[in-house]
Amino acid sequence: MRLVGLLLVMMMLLLNACAFSRGTLGDELKTETINSIKKGVTTRAEVLAQLGAPDRVLQLNGRDLFQYYRYDAKVGSLLLIVVNFSRVSVKSDDLFVVINREGTVEEVIASKRTEGLEFRFWPFGD
Amino acid sequence: MTHRPLALLVLLSTALGILLSGCNVARLTINTPLTPESVAFIAEGRTTLADVVDTLGAPDSITDAEMGSIVTYRFLNAKYSRVNFGWLLKPWSPVDPDFVFSRSGLGADAFELLCDPNWIVTHYAFVRHRPEPPFTPYPF
Lengths: 126, 140
Prior knowledge:
The complex is a heterodimer. By secondary structure, chain A is of the alpha+beta class. In chain A, 21% of the residues lie in helices and 47% in strands. Chain A contains 3 helices and 5 strands. Chain B contains 2 helices and 6 strands; from the N terminus they run αβαβββββ. In chain B, strands 1, 2, 3, 4, 5 and 6 form a 6-stranded antiparallel β-sheet that branches. Chain B is elongated and about 70 Å long. The A-B interface holds A 2-3, 6, 10, 14, 58-61, 65, 67, 81-96, 107, 109-111, 113, 123-124 and B 2, 5-6, 9-10, 13, 17-18, 20-32, 49-50, 53, 57-64, 68-69, 79, 87, 117, 119, 135.
């Protein structure tokens, strides 16, 4: 018990500050919206109506590729008096919609990596 | 006798504090770094992009190529460490002396797949083969 008390006191003496910061870029890509896009059924106009204008439009062998993305950054800092640890973790959600020459969706490629993003202080390890 | 381990702990913590004076350790990761092991499941000519996306998630970019599409996953693993030995002189100096060793390492890389028009992976490779950067403040 005394050891725990002593460790707490030491931590209070050494712990100068801790900080949490977060930054996001882009609109959230909702799972239900992504699931509503059906290959061979959904049209270009419906994609634009549901998701808005894409962040990037590319030509892919005569087909249109709409790219939507969102970035999420989480920063954790543990500021001790004598040593500081900080870690910045950035992940993205991406959605690619390939639209064929007829104007319907040919392929949907999506994933939400930001769902598992956590605030981390410890810079070592994975 | 029970006070001895506590005294030792306090002494060790103080010594560690003095030794680590002015240390900063920081790390930046963008996306999950991929390794040759994590992409070993891809079989050229057989694996589809859908299989790859199921395992690795969506890529960061898809661009046009003469024989199909190039799919790119980008990731970054940057490490920074800094030690300011000037802190050791702080209690005895009228100014804040700095004597800093610092070093940063960038483990930026990209993983590219070439897919045919049917979204079957025909080739794949890492772009730069950067080694994992160490946490080492010694710059020489």
